[in-house]
Amino acid sequence: MRRLDVPNPVPFRGRLAALCLSLAASGWVWAAWAAPIDSPVNPRVVSTLTEEDRRANTAATISAIESEAAGRTIPARFGPSPRGESAPLIVRLAGLPGDAPLGAPAASYLSRGYAVLELDFGESPLPTAAMMRDVLRLRRRIAAEMADRVDIDRIFVVPETHTLEVDQPFFTHEGFIYRLDVLQAAGAPAPTAVQFSHRVESRRENRAFVAYDDAMLDGLALRGFTVVLADHHGADVPERRIDRMPLQVAHGRAALSLVAGRAEDWNVDPDRLALVGFSKGGATAALLAGAQNANDLSADPGVPPVRATVVLGAYLDQARLLQDGGDPGSSRWQENLAAWGDPASTPAEWNRNSAITYVDGGDPPMFLVAGDKDDYRPAQARRMASALKAAAVLHHLIIEPELEHRLPSSDAAWNRIFAFLDETLAQPR
After folding, report:
1. Is the pTM of this model over 0.85?
2. What is the tens place of the pLDDT at every residue in 291-336?
């Protein structure tokens, strides 16, 4: 085991700015306005807006970003959805460095009824981790302020090198259709990261979860990955939010099968497939990575082998949640007790639903991260690292200082995660 020590998180000090010049409600809108990044929109300004003006005025909320990554203000332009109702918002990142082929233009999303906010980075050299912080702050700003002025049901960050496809069905259970979204990289088949949303609602209501799933996929897309965000197992009814094997493996297997089956359409390289996830999504990634050997999924030509796994802030050994500092009154523990009984008398069910049970020498390399303020999860990550070490599986572990239940906040952590994926997926099978 290699223990990676990470410095304290680097605070992001940025401001969003804007310039105000409205063209037409159905066309591009330029705007200009400035305020500290964490400050609310002035309510006196909001109250002067008519219903007819609200869409055009959305551009005054965010029309530029003072980018720490680029070291300057990045201009933006906003195109409201032509369909005049709740619509996804595409945040399109243009002017990225490099000569990668381009994906779908902004106009194609407008023609599909989406709203589009395009940022032009002017081909500045941009560290991925710094851009992630820019974009995450932008997501939060949109969710906090812009969503009240324009009907936004989902937010997607799409680099100009990618094309977005949404709501692709991959699994049906008791009449509920599970779906996934794909950001496909243009050009040659690309390394691909598949992520199961960290909780059951978050793929379809990602406005509320901007601190979690989406930021990780933003970073991977900026590094040229095709990225996939899938509904988590249990999204059909609340009482299935607990883990249920082997249904959970069947669900994950179906998603991977669809990704492999659409490899040509989505520019997926099935020989460079990674599973990534935060919280519940991280637990699922770890479970599927181990269960592909235990359930002989790797022998099925329809299911591509997982080559690397990134697990962030996850529970991994459910029977020992209390031993590792968990709260006996928590909903997770109480739901598990109701479903599986006491772990002392029915350990098999608890173990069957824990990723650590499936660790063996055939597992792909794994990168584990947990915050030292994140309840029982640091102890669970250390426990998983010990099991991987005993099985001689390549792995890395970061316990990040002062981090609660959030994605890593330091550039150093993200840079090591990206390096791990680059190096692992570059290795021949």
Report:
1. no
2. 876 654 445 667 888 999 999 999 999 999 899 998 888 877 888 8
410 versus 66: the higher-pLDDT residue is 410
Query: In the CATH hierarchy, which top-level class contains the domain 162-426?
Result: alpha beta
Q: Can you give the chain as a three-state secondary structure string? A: CEECCCCCCCCCCCEEECEEECCCCCCCEEEECEEECCCCCCHHHHHCCCCCCHHHHHHHHCCEEEECCCCEEEEEEEECCCCCCCEEEEEEEECCCCCCCCCCCHHHHHHCCCEEEEEECCCCCCCHHHHHHHHHHHHHHHHHCHHHCCCEEEEEEEECCEEEEEEEEEEEECCEEEEEEEEEECCCCEEEEEEECCCCCCCCCHHHHCCCHHHHHHHHHHCCCEEEEECCCCCCCHHHCCCCCCHHHHHHHHHHHHHHHCHHHHCEEEEEEEEEEECHHHHHHHHHHHHHHHCCHHHCCCCCCCCEEEEECCCCCHHHCCCCCCCCCCHHHHHHHHHHCCCCCCHHHHHHCCHHHHCCCCCCCEEEEEECCCCCHHHHHHHHHHHHHHCCCCEEEEEECCCCCCCCCCHHHHHHHHHHHHHHHHCCC
Domain range summary for the chain, segments of one domain joined by + = 13-159, 162-426
**Could you tell me which residues come within 8 angstroms of residue 91 by beta carbon, excluding any fewer than 6 positions away?**
117, 118, 119, 135, 138, 139, 142, 155, 156, 157, 158
Does residue 310 contact residue 421 with C-beta atoms inside 8 Å?
yes
- Written as one letter, the residue type at 253 is R
